[in-house]
Amino acid sequence: NIRPSMSISEAQLHRSAINPESNKSLPMNKPDLIEYMMASTAHHNREDITQAVNVILSAIEDSLASGGRVEVRGFGAFDLRYHPPRVGRNPKTGESINVTGAYRPYFKPGKELREGERGNIKWDRLAVHHEPQVARRYLGDAGRMLVSALREPHR
C-alpha cells in the first residue's frame, strides 16, 4: 500500500514492485533494489548503498560456493540441493542427453515472508534448481556467477 507520506519516487518504486491490478510480482533488479533502499532511508549515498548490496550478495554467494547455508530469520534461507545425474531430452531435437549431477542453489521463503503483510501473494518455493533464470533475474551478476559456480558437484 502506498503511504501518503511517500515521495513520488517511493510511490513509483512501490508500484513497480507490485502490480495491484494483476496481483503479480514484477521483477526487481539490483538497480531497482538500490533505488528502493535510497528512497526508504535517510542515507542517499548511492555508492554506499551499492557497496552494501554487493557485500550482501557476495556473502551469500561465498557461503553457498563453500557448501554453507545462509538463513535470514523472517525472510528465508539460501541453501544447496544436490540433483543426481539423469538422462534429459533436448527439447528442440528430442535427442537424449546425459545431464551431470550438480549442487544447485535453492531459496525457501521464511514463514514471516510467506504469511506476512503480503500474504495475499501465493508463494511457491522458489527453487533455483528448477529455473536457474530465476537466480539470474533476481540476483543479477551474483546469480549468474552462483549458477555457473555450482554446476559441478560439491566435494
UniProtKB/TrEMBL annotation:
Provide the Gene Ontology terms for cellular component: cytosol
Q: Which UniProt keywords apply?
A: DNA-binding
Q: Name one GO molecular function term.
A: DNA binding
The family this protein is said to belong to: Belongs to the bacterial histone-like protein family.
**What is the protein name given in its UniProt record?**
Integration host factor, beta subunit
